[in-house]
């Protein structure tokens, strides 16, 4: 493939088709490990992986969807087929936009996913795994996600798992007289603590690094910070516990919870789980996990249904423009390779012919110009029909025709650059062909919206 050509293939495991246990299983490897694994395959030129508490998704760029699916099989987690959604090129682009806009989130329109997608993009870029195809697709998805939040009301109301957890707590207990504890001061923990602080009687913030917890409580009136080593002694005094750490193993188990006439409300919004499931069977304990937040998010979905329709229309328009841009770019790069190959052959044969003519009788400047113009005209006329056919092929996603043309006119196209050579080649998503006589034009991804 030449720079900028290729198709995206992906798979997604999310809350929409998998439970929390399945998602935990799928999150057994880090983003960087998955990216490294797929990039080690010669057929893969670009890759990105997105992992959040509600989803695991991997995308690769190859010469065809079939090749992409084969590459993705090597990093497929050990889960049921029903839990995995496979995505072709257009499906991947549309899904990335829906994810960025919050349409695929547990809480419709939540804001955190946009930052998480941006982080995944930056991680892949730092590994030299993002080239022109993903650069265009990911930046467009992020741009549409920003537009959705600035031009519609898709993110009004409950917009995160942290705030959904607080809403659930408010329904299950009397916040004004409650002692609440938030475990973890990451993004979701911070949101939960900030939402609880004005309404509860007392707020405790626990974190592995106490200094980080203290930094958060400094901004929350009346809250206090503790380390995780004090967790066991403190839970017994709490009416509400919201846990959202990044621990790989549960940090709260049955040994840390005491039986009580007053129920303790535990809400686990971490992935993997912070609270051992067996804690929920303990007398006097009500345990809710991510799956239990669906009732809250269902109400949010209903309230935002109109905004969601607006966002869907926005995505439809963006997809149409983006696919046209991809197809134009793919055709232009193939045509550029075709013209450059023809130009090399023309120059070689032209020099041979001129040398032979000069040997017989030295040509005048006008005669040389006539011969050169003839060569140019022959190349232009011979390639006019293939040029049109290739542009038509790109519109039809006819990769067989395009790859055949590459083989005919660019014999070295299959020599894939080494990993160390990719960065200069992929430094910009807006690389333009150099064959000016091909009549090629390009467009920047940001022009569409």
TrEMBL record:
NCBIfam families: hemA
Protein name as catalogued: Glutamyl-tRNA reductase
UniProtKB keywords: NADP, Oxidoreductase, Porphyrin biosynthesis
GO terms of biological process kind: protoporphyrinogen IX biosynthetic process from glutamate
Domain Tetrapyrrole biosynthesis glutamyl-tRNA reductase dimerisation: 310-410
Active site (UniProt): 53
Function: Catalyzes the NADPH-dependent reduction of glutamyl-tRNA(Glu) to glutamate 1-semialdehyde (GSA).
Keyword Transcription regulation recorded: no
